[in-house]
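Predict the assembly for these two chains.
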Amino acid sequence: MMLDLAFIWAAIIAFAVLAYVMMDGFDLGIGILFPFYKSEADRDRMMNSVAPVWDGNETWLVLGGGGLFAVFPLAYAAIMPALYAPIIIMLLALVFRGVAFEYRWRTRRGKFLWDWAFALGSLAATFTQGIALGTIVQGIPIVDRAYAGGWWTWLTPFSFFTGLALVVGYALLGATWLILKTDEQLQERSYRFAMILGPATLILIGLVSLWTPFLEPLYMERWFSWPRMLYTIPVPLLVALAAYLLIRGLVRREEYTPFLASLALFLLSFIGLGVSFYPYMVPPTLTIWDAAGPEESLSFLLVGAVVLVPIILAYTAYSYWVFRGKVGSEGYH
Amino acid sequence: MDSFDPVLLARWQFAFTVSFHIVFPSFSIGLASYLAVLEGLWLATGRTTYLTLFNYWKKIFAVAFGMGVVSGLVMAYQFGTNWSVFSDKAGPIIGPLMGYEVLTAFFLEAGFLGVMLFGLNKVGRSLHYIATLMVAIGTFISAFWILSANSWMQTPVGYTINAVGQFAPTDWWAIVFNPSFPYRLVHMVIAAYLTTALVVGGVGAWHLLRDRLNDGSRVMFSMAMWMLAIVAPIQILAGDLHGLNTLEHQPAKIAAMEGHFETRAGAPLILFGWPDMEAEKTLYEIAIPKLGSLILKHEWDGVVKGLKDWPKEDRPNATIVFWSFRIMVGLGFLMLGLGLWSLWGRYRKRLYEMKGLHVASVLMGPLGFVAVLAGWVTTEVGRQPYTVYGVLRTADSAAPIAAQAVAASLIAFVVVYFFVFGAGVFYLLRLMSKPPHENEPDSPSDAHLRAAGIVPAPALETVGELATYPEDRR
């Protein structure tokens, strides 16, 4: 029985998390890059390139977390205390950067303050999300349906490293998004950043991928046992292809390919994680089925998700369509 | 070391963050509807004052909504960080209800908010109006699910306890429309409308005191006063029905609200006093004989249960609940008074000249929030010592977290919230302190928001430009 409710829900939540990473990733990345663009006019354009959509982007985080709470309550109850400090820091960071979108237009004297709130908030939120990822990958100890680790268990060289990797990766998404949405000097500057961030992201993805199999025998077996390797080998091959397209696109000054190739890198990394994890929800103890709530909860919400997620995707796409094209520089004169 | 009890600290943290949070939705529910009404009136009548007011309140809405979003995000994750046992046990029921909130409301609001704020000349009038309506409907749907989840925790039905100790749903229809839900939803949504009406009325009155001829100030003041006059009495009725429902399902809460420790026939209505939980009686009480029974039981000699009917460890804190309830009710009657006063002003055709009424409206501007918070404290503290009433105790709901971790995060929340939301309130007040001007371009800093590349015409909001607004958009 592969296609049961728990499996479907795991897929939906994985999709929500992926959607979050791919959409909020670039607007967090813009916050990370904020300090490197000094001119106020540039910053205004950067902010405005995401202002109409960031709110919708961030909502996928609520769906990821809320979905976990709803259909995998045990996983939620185990992961959240395990990640207590990073989650709290992430929430506070998102508070700062979220209000910055409105506040920085409401004050001239305090504008620099909210610029910093936006930049540091984005940085801290990204870093803690990376730490959260690393912590889950390295495994969360559970005894008797509750988290059994300490308050600092999450802090390891590996989780620190995944935090760093995500910061660089989101910055790449941000830079390539700016290439897409802006022109002239701002775009030129973004090309230069992407030229550094692209290779850096690739190196970090490579290092995390090499490190991961040594954390758990399960992961090692997934990636390096024959003939299983035949199924997993396309992932690194596609990563190489995406990397090639990214660099080529940057060199040729293409506008769309760098962003799309960067998204592809995230998608492939995510698939790679899935390959390592499946069927675990919280490695090394909880599988999807261990963590799933009662059938009635899963089916009740599934009805809504099946109907509503496509509708949400449709009007999200519409919203992006309405605000398509370059964020012009003539607007605010 | 009572103060370092992790459960108590987690409760403080939850109370603090939820109190902050609830202020913003109760404002944005009302304001989103108000914006939809204003834009609708503008489209229907073409009167520019409505558009001016729409743009005026839109900016305020955007700031308040932003604060609501981020403080709401905190709430969603706090169930897991501080109340993980509750999450595991009640997640199968609360989770899907909140999941539906995210799917039906969150995305709707977030998806259309951008269009509503930035898109008037990108999408044309009718699509823009649809976006405004969607945002308004979204806030309402959000209230629906959150109140459903909260009501279920107050009056749990439609579940069994499964093998691993979780609440497993058996009847979703019963869960969503649980016994206290309709009353709670109506009471809360009306409260949001009243809160918004008080703010809008207060801002209108503030500007009328300086310039009683400003058309925008007049319109918003008048609309707000109609709202109060019509809705405040409905709220008092709804509150009474809600109270009777609570008596049926949560009699201990009613006993605490009324300050009754003894069960008796022909119970008095205690107007004021000091319920002392240790001494088990209400000190210094000022009471009207028999009226308590008459209100609660609709009989002079109806028997009203007192707190002593429950073991000590099952009683909610009467001192808090008694007073928060009185604050809420008192403010409700003040709102009614203000509404009636405005009717008298209208009858004398002096609505825009009565300084006393305007001063009172300004003073009452923020009191809706106080009433909402007091009502929230009444219902939530009154639910204690349970998270799921009568079934799951608060003490058994908390996460296995060290007190220091909860204390540290509580301090972080307090510091950040006061700083961030303090600044937000400051900006809100500054926006409100400017009168709605029809012919004046917006301040340069504000022009950024609307103009910076997203909207090519920077001053679309000003009426001067509006005259040249292309007709083909219709």
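Chain B is about 70% helix and 5% strand. Chain B touches chain A through 81 residues (CB under 8 Å).
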